[in-house]
Batch of 4 targets.
Target 1
Amino acid sequence: MPRWIGIDYGGVRTGLAVTDDNAKLAFPHATVSTRELMAELKRLVNASPCQGFVMGLPNAWGVELGKGFTHSTEPILQFRDQLKKRWPELEVVTVDETNTSEEALQASISGGMRKSKRSAKGALDHVAAAIILQRYLDR
């Protein structure tokens, strides 16, 4: 079964996660500069068979209904459209990302990550991407 790539999109940094080869479990991959995002996605897509992308979207249920937009909604939707255009053969799915940053923080604490490392910019973005991806897999 092809794997999925999870995306916690940000204007400066973006967290990435990938599934195992059976597409059952999500794992943090990396936090990359958003400027370098497409190059990293191309590398991941070419590395092994890929089913598609799962992107976090604030208030995804409200956005589907045409309301509940936040300041980050439009850039995320624009990037989603870029993905669809670049890889039309792959699925692009959005998942509500509510509380994923807090969940990523708690997971990092539980995993023993030191406070100094957790407070570094971008330290939790790839963990949040894994949470977003796992939410999709658990549906």
Note: The chain has a mean pLDDT of 84.
Target 2
Amino acid sequence: MASEQSEIPRRSLFGLNAANFLQAEMVGVILPLLNGYLKQAGWRYDSLGVATAIGGLGALIFQAPAGWLIDKLTCRRAIFAVAAVLTGVCFVAIPLAPRVPVWIDSLLFASGAAQTLFGPVLAALALGLASHSRLNRVMGANQSWNHAGNIAAALLAMAVVSALGLSSVFYSVGLCSLLAAASMLLIRDGDIDEQVAAGLTRGEEAKPSWKHLLHNRTVLFLFLSIFMFHLANAPILPTVALYVKKLGGSDNLMTATVLTAQIVMVPVALFAGRLCDSWGRKPVLAIAFWVLPLRIFTYSLATTPSAVVWLQALDGIGAGIYGVAVAAVSADLTKGKGGFNTLMGLFATAVAVGGVAGPLLSGVCVQHLGFRVTFYAFAALAGLGAAVFSWLVPDTARLNEQSAVAPAADLGMVEEGL
């Protein structure tokens, strides 16, 4: 297995990057295209919001258990492969099933549940392969490959949709799911330190309880700010895709809303890992939080489809940072304690709660109040989440440094961020 000083095995690192790339290739553009597909079938905006929320509900219910499971089990590569194939099957079934809510919502629920395993597994493999000292750089590379996969997915979708129609994109997801599962064969078991992958340091005995996470005020404030961030963020991409269509944009221009953001995310994610080391976690993650309300508000000022697509570049900044920085924060808060994947699952639960509530709220707002008022409301929500993060969450890298030198009697206060 890799040590702190040894070079990270190239084959396993390539397999991990490939898994990130192909996982994004599977699901990168499916949501806005799914909404367009169902809109063509005569679905109302609020019905589209419910369908999106149902997929988020599957993620919400299973996200925290998924993180806990990945902490407990070591067959992480097999878990990822099974989740990838199951997700592919769900999306391939969508154009084959009747386009009525009971069928579509059930498939989206199952796919949402399966996708809860992707984040914790990939983060655990990165930590077990790279160790704490090199996690940020490896996560930056992983997230760059993930966003590159989204770019490839958008380009592929534009090609197949132009040639074969919207339904063809679901079959491409099925193919990518098989390739994603196969990428796990490149990662060797011996290269993964299973203790480090769970958040422990090398040689430590596993700690059975993760309840310390629920008593940590930094964790609770982070959970709240992440929830508000994604309550505002989750419905915006599909809403923007529908806005592009309302303004007269084509299916390809609707797909380009994903492509524009992902092009920006690739370099941002790569640099985010380095900046988390040099600047600290909080200032880097704060950029992601504050870009979101600015981005949502500016959509209300756009009057042409092309302007909306260009504004999606701001999404690339926030999303490019978030995927890297949240793993760095989770590693800081669980180092030497265990529960890394459980904490990742808790934060992903906050994302999933936003993923359920946000689309429901946005669907109703768009249907009854219009796009502009919807953008105003969600920009305000995003600003509130950014304020909570900025005022109440400390820099977790500094907390780790303090806990390394604090007297034993003071460790509890350091962990609480007091």
Note: DSSP finds 19 helices and no strands in the chain.
Target 3
Amino acid sequence: MTSNTMFRLFPGFLVMVSWCAESHAQVQWQRTEQEIEHDVQVFHASKVLGLPTAQMLRKGNFEFEISHRFVPPVKDGYAALFGFDGPARMRLGVSYAVADDWVMTVGRSSIDANTDLTIKYRLSQTEMSGMPFVSALQIGAAWNPVETFRRDHKDSVIVRGKGHSRHFQIFAQLMIDFQPMGQLAVGVVPSFLYNRDIGAEDVENTFVLGTHLQLFLNRHWSIIGEYSPLLKEKSTWRNPAGLGMELETGAHIFEMFITNQVRINPAQFLAGAEYSFDGDNLRIGFMITRIL
């Protein structure tokens, strides 16, 4: 079966999830109106694909996230269950709203045990000529508690221990969300990453012009897309991209998509993808978030 076949499999999978969710939504998953009500709302999720949105939590709320990126490509077909046989890269994250406009998040990736702490602050929310507009700023730091190895000009092996300063990274992202028409939400996320490659000889920085969009089909279903070009010349890394669907059922949000990016945490995602976004390199990804 081809990649096009996988596109046809996504809706069937999500319909099954939706049927299960509908049967239990009122009992277990229904979020109160107060929890989801905001003065201005563009995206419903705090994150769409690999990029954050300006969406905030209510003060005192927690949000739990689990994300997977499967390493085998879709083109491997049924022998690898179109990539679902794994292995997979994984992220666990917990967010807490210190205030309505402040959210702190701790996350961990299975790649290099990358652990990050981020703080998100909502800058503004308004309507411009009837168009919803929300902006927020996110800053964070990541630590990679691993040893790295490289060779110097004399071909000697240089070892950097787990606590080496080069294993720390810093990033900042400005989220600008707006809704130019009806059911279409657009996000522009200019981002900066300090020390993109912890194993490189010298510090490298990266600028990324993150972009994503969401087309709401109804109160539960939407189509999501992402393209994040790296603003760095002669980079061997590829621009992260993805396309899929989102299902919202009460306090749960499910996303399932194809992507060329298997690196999940912000400091990894912003460094770029290892693969091109084409039929030979597409991977399956999913994310589930839950308001607690």
Note: The chain has three helices and 16 strands.
Target 4
Amino acid sequence: MTDPQQPQPSEEEVRAALEEQLRQLTVDDMLLESAVSLINLGGRKAGVAPGTEDERDLDQVRRAVDAVRALLPLLEQGKHAEQLGPLRDALARLQMVYAQGAGRQEPPSGQPPEQKPPEQSKDDPGPAQSSGRLWVPGQ
């Protein structure tokens, strides 16, 4: 809460403070902040946190995952490279949530459900092995 006795900064003081922040900010800082924000937003769009179930949007989760994966190579070359472990862990969790959600998602209306391949016995040769192109030890 602001103190009514405390004078409010002038527009010029606010502008000077913002300029100082921009002077100190680096592209690496912004890349990391962007990746963290995308992870947080993707988690919210996954609808797994209490109170966010109605915000579930797997397409948005997928886009967040793709965007963070695109930023990772840039982050790995920057000044925050040593600190990326938690970001990678959060990305892996978000990818798992997406994969689980996408597996449960019904196909869009008008499209037939995905056909599962016929079940094979573990003793039956697979397509690569039966073609003779797969090397199998002992055979």
Note: Residues 124 and 130 are 9 Å apart (CA to CA).
